[in-house]
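Hey team,

Filing this mostly as a record. A colleague (T.K.) asked me to run one chain through the structure pipeline before their review meeting, and I want the input and output archived in the tracker in case anyone asks later how it was produced. No errors, nothing strange. Just documentation.

Input sequence:
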Amino acid sequence: MRTRIATAAVVLFGLLIAPVHKATAVEGGAGFYLLGSTTTNAGILPPPGTYVIDYNYFYSGSTDIAFDRAGLILDGGIEAGVYGNVPAPLWVAPNKVLGANIGFLMLIPIIHKDVDAGASLSLPPPFGVTISQNIGDQETRFGDLVPGFMLGWHHGNWHFKTHTLVNTPTGFWEQGNLANAGFNRWAIDNAAAFTWLDPKIGLEVSSMAGITYNWENPTTQYKSGSEFHLEYAVVQNFSKQFAVGVNGFYYDQVTGDSGPGARLGSFAGRVSAIGPVVNMNFQLGQVPVLTNLKYFREFDVENRLQGDSGYVTVTIPLGGPAN
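Output structure:
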């Protein structure tokens, strides 16, 4: 009898792992593009010069797991906390290409993750036992380096920008680790954005749309689907030093996960979020410092964690004027 229970536990415990993965579509639960990072001033590339942008990203989220079929009952959940510091040097060239300024940047993520998952599996008669498991990982590691380039056009109150970002599998990744900082896969994100900013009335309207294409993780043979993201902001500038408004994002995985490693089949994630945004600019000696604070509350979530995220972003020009 004990052997039968142990055998059933091994077989059925696979059902525990399946919903954990299905709760977080896209391998690892998130794409490399940080949702909400480009809302206000989305279409504005700063004037020629050298800049240091420092993104500080916070996320806290969770999801529940529930399964009840033929007397087999599974209950559990996942909780995750993330802090990322992402320095991003940016150089905007003095010459134009296709009538646009061109900029080159490198995102250098340092990620702290704390992830816990737990579940209990109740077996029906004749077994009549409950199996419980809790797993968790906590890491502070370098993530994948992300080089990119941008093109920016300016026409009166209208500003337009495109970007291409490439995720390189250079960061920490370990098979089975819930708190990986890297993704162990190549990916590319292409996006286009606009900003309409009227300096007379101080009103800004910005939006950006992009899509991320993921290559297969060669270790797990898991190919994450393509990811669409749309971000927006409506901001009132009360002076050159202070602005406040609302911003948000919408994310939709437009193709399902696939590959030999996607043993659960093809499924996709979706999430929306909205919250306040504040821009505050000040002088640090003779150096202008641009700061941006954002908060997002997620809703309409499918196959992803649900929670809250935020940014504190600081931009400092090292050479050339700040925008």
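Quick notes for T.K.: The radius of gyration is 22 Å. The chain has one domain: 2-319.
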